[in-house]
Specification:
- This protein is an alpha+beta fold and 246 residues long.
- It folds into two domains: 155 residues, Jelly Rolls, CATH 2.60.120.10; 78 residues, Arc Repressor Mutant, subunit A, CATH 1.10.10.
- It has nine helices and eleven strands.
- α6 crosses α9 and α7 packs across α8.
- The radius of gyration is 19 Å and the shape is elongated.
């Protein structure tokens, strides 16, 4: 018996849409985050092994247990990384934005994904065949070092973020997520919340009821305004203080 997420994933495999947003990796605005050490020939190897896919909100990009056969990086959109327990309950591990390398920690250590990846809004992902990516790593020591450096940074950031959230009370956790979305993702004080209240709870390990109550308290205190899923942050100073002390 398949659950709805598995059915949607199988369906998505048949309707995956490709894009030609950029003609060559050399012209990608994110190339220097990882690919700055490549020469023209190596850019061509990566470019020939690359396919751009477009995913709609809710579509599963990769399913937990699926074989890892490509390197992924996100050029547009927003995704969530999550695991599903034996009862079918999801636990969000992180929310990732453009420029994040959403499977770099896994491609050298695991044959299969240990988590699923799903789009939170329309998302464009570059999918580079893993054999081509590894060939370039093997033949370019500077590139290999930059990959190792990026892996270390991702690992450090992940550990620090999870540790920081674990030390906060519920208000501090919610404040942290709202600031992340406002400052790091959308870079404005008014935005549409890309996840449900339940998903916010999954991300910060709190119940949906706690999230709803905290949003209501923030609204009552004049820190945020809510209009359905649209959030406006009215008082950044107070929200940052809650994040710091919560």
């Amino acid at each position: 018996m398949y659950d709805i997420s598995h059915i949607l994933y199988i369906y998505s495999l048949f309707i995956m849409r490709t894009s030609k947003d950029i003609l060559n990796c050399k012209y990608c605005v994110y190339r220097n985050l990882l690919f700055g050490e490549l020469d023209d020939k190596e850019y061509e190897i990566i470019n020939n092994a690359r396919t751009e896919y477009v995913f709609k909100r809710g579509e599963v990009i990769k399913k937990e247990g699926e074989r890892i056969n490509s390197f992924l990086y996100m050029r547009k959109g927003l995704v969530k990384l999550y695991k599903t327990d034996r009862r079918g309950k999801d636990q969000i591990l992180s929310i990732n934005k453009p420029g994040d390398f959403i499977n770099l920690l896994n491609i050298f250590s695991n044959a299969a994904y240990k988590y699923s990846i799903a789009a939170l809004e329309e998302t464009l992902v570059c999918d580079v065949r893993l054999d081509a990516f590894i060939d370039v790593v093997k033949n370019n020591s500077d590139f290999a070092l930059s990959v190792l450096n990026r892996i270390s940074k991702i690992s450090d950031e992940t550990i620090e973020r999870r540790f920081s959230l674990a030390q906060k009370q519920i208000k501090g956790r919610v404040a942290n997520i709202l600031l992340f979305l406002a400052e790091d993702v959308y870079r404005k004080n008014k935005f549409r919340l890309p996840v449900t209240r339940r998903e916010v709870g999954e991300l910060v390990s709190m119940t949906t009821e706690n999230i709803i109550r905290t949003f209501s308290e923030f609204r009552k205190d004049g820190i945020i305004d809510l209009d359905g899923k649209v959030i406006t942050i009215l008082d950044f100073k107070r929200l940052k203080n809650i994040d710091k002390t919560g």
